What does this fold into?
Amino acid sequence: QVQLVESGGGLVQPGGSLRLSCAASGFPFSSAVMSWVRQAPGKGLERVSDISGGGGITYYEDSVKGRFTISRDNAKNTVYLRVNSLKPEDTAVYYCAKVLGAVRGPLDAWGQGTLVTVSS
It folds into this structure.
């Protein structure tokens, strides 16, 4: 079955950086669009970024453009999210998700999440 396991979250000061990772298994990873979504405390899910199977097509939500970078290593079945210039409003649980179809398509599986806390 589909398994997505996130890691890399933690406590970071404003302006800091982290690299989130998501190890995937149970499906043909290299042909799957992958996504990162987040949920801030008391708020709904927000789609942060998508990447196509080959990595050539990406999507970023406006508030993270220029600060976050999505990438993938199909040999390792892993998708990454590099998060730079972090702000307190980036505090959230970040989930890796498998996308059904094309970039920005519906999500059909996700992991347990990794918590990113931005605070001084």
